[in-house]
Amino acid sequence: MSVTFFITGTPTHVVDTWECQCVDDGKAWPTCLHCMGTGKVEYEEPVWPSLNLANTNALNVLQAIGFAPEYDGVWEGETLDRAIEGCLRALNSESRRAVATREAYHIPGGHAGVRVVHEGNVARVERMGAEVFGCGYSDETVRARVGQILDICRKAKEEGEKVCWG
Ligand SMILES: [Zn+2]
Fold first, then answer.
1. Smaller CB count within 10 Å for the chain: N or C?
2. What is the DSSP string of 76-120?
3. How many domains does the chain have?
4. Ligand 1 centre and the CA of 116: distance in Å?
5. pLDDT (tens digit per residue) in 6-19
6. CA of residue 139 to ligand 1 center, whole Å
7. Judgement on whether residues 82 and 158 belong to the same structural domain of the protein
8. Same domain, 149 and 94
């Protein structure tokens, strides 16, 4: 799952177009909900800046800029100003960004206990647990993401719009 930060009212542009799956023998299904009977599906992206983050990273970056870790929300007026201020503070303070960083880690397999397997008269002890790799989130990455959120907030303010995330 992920969280997208975007600006309300952004114009969009078509970045990809393809034939709808409903098209059969050159004809689109008239009541198709994907293409509305046109036979063409368009994928649009916002023209103004937006940012998509994995849930954990989004919640951590929100905390780094001084907000509660929530999966959705809106910044407008006073809260938009507070978000801009929070981004600037985080960009200027490694200790504020530190809440959003984490080290990469690796847990070798066999670290989740043991089980006894019986084979005839022989009892064998087996180790359990999968090998786990955890991705890190560096200070450099956090700084870049905060910078992107700042750009989004400034553009929203300039356009008289809101920033939403969810
Ligand atoms: Zn269709």
1. N
2. -THHHHHHHHHHHHHHT-HHHHGGG-B--EEE-SS-S-EEEEEET
3. 2
4. 56
5. 999 999 999 999 99
6. 45
7. yes
8. yes
- Confidence (pTM): 0.78
Residue 2 token pair: 């992920």
Mark whether 73 and 44 lie in a shared domain: yes
Report how far ligand 1's centroid is from the alpha carbon of 112 (Å).
49
Cα-to-centroid distance, 79 and ligand 1 (Å): 41
User: How far is residue 19's CA from residue 71's CA, in Å, rounded to a whole number?
Assistant: 34
Q: Which residue range forms the structural domain that includes residue 131?
A: 104-136
Which tens digits make up the pLDDT trace of 31-78?
999 999 999 999 999 999 999 999 999 999 999 999 999 999 999 999
Q: How far away, in angstroms, is 22 Cα from ligand 1 center? A: 4
CA of 69 to the centre of ligand 1 (A): 39
In this structure, the answer to whether residues 89 and 150 fall within a common structural domain is yes
Same domain, 45 and 117: no
